[in-house]
Design goal:
This protein is mainly beta. The chain has one helix at 15-26, and strands at 44-50, 55-61, 70-72, 77-84, 86-91, 99-104, 108-111, 117-121, 128-135, 140-146, 153-159. The protein has one domain: Jelly Rolls, CATH 2.60.120.
Length: 191
């Protein structure tokens, strides 16, 4: 790809540089719009750029139930920029409701390789498109859920090619919108 809005890095890059890459790609819909095929059935994604130091993806979120569940990015640092719509970004808090915020178009966030978070389309918004930049490129994620049998939080490794989705009970969302486990009281994952 000759017309990139960033210089391909010569080594791993940090969170500030990743945020800049994600923002620059978000500002260039010609790089990702033709290859995204938004559908209400599931999130769709398109690889924008990948080399040994950087991976950049566009993800379309077309329905309120499009949700990654809690996950980490293994050894990769990352940044997300919202190109369209609005995404809800949440972090676990032990013993309390998750901390979350709505991130509208034109804004973003970054994380290091120790972060556990969850993303889903902000309820009631139209099509949302996010641009994700990872360094090194994403190879594996860890997905988290409270087990139905022992009620403990477990990490399940999964290849980056597998679409993230909630794995088991995820607790109540930070905005209070969403169902709890049938027959249970409203609790958070940390309870």
């Amino acid at each position: 790809m000759d017309d990139l809005p960033f210089q391909p890095p010569t080594g791993p890059i940090g969170a500030d540089e990743l945020a800049d890459v994600a923002r620059r790609v978000a500002e260039r819909p010609d790089l990702w719009e033709p290859t995204l095929d938004p559908t209400r059935e599931r999130r769709t994604y398109s690889e924008v750029y990948t080399d040994e130091n950087l991976g950049v993806w566009a993800i379309a979120w077309a329905a309120d139930d499009h949700d990654t569940g809690y996950h980490d990015h293994d050894r990769s640092h990352g940044a997300v920029h919202v190109a369209r719509g609005c995404i809800r970004h949440e972090h676990l808090q032990l013993g309390a409701r998750p901390v979350g915020e709505a991130v509208p178009a034109g804004q973003g966030f970054r994380f290091d390789n120790t972060a556990i978070h969850r993303m889903r389309r902000e309820p009631g918004h139209d099509l949302t498109v996010t641009i994700h930049a990872y360094s090194p490129p994403l190879e594996e994620t860890g997905q988290y859920a409270q087990d139905d049998h022992d009620r403990l939080l477990h990490r399940v490794p999964s290849p980056s090619s597998e679409q993230l989705r909630p794995q088991g009970f995820q607790g109540d969302p930070s905005d209070g919108i969403g169902a709890t486990r049938p027959g249970s009281r409203r609790t958070s994952v940390g309870d």
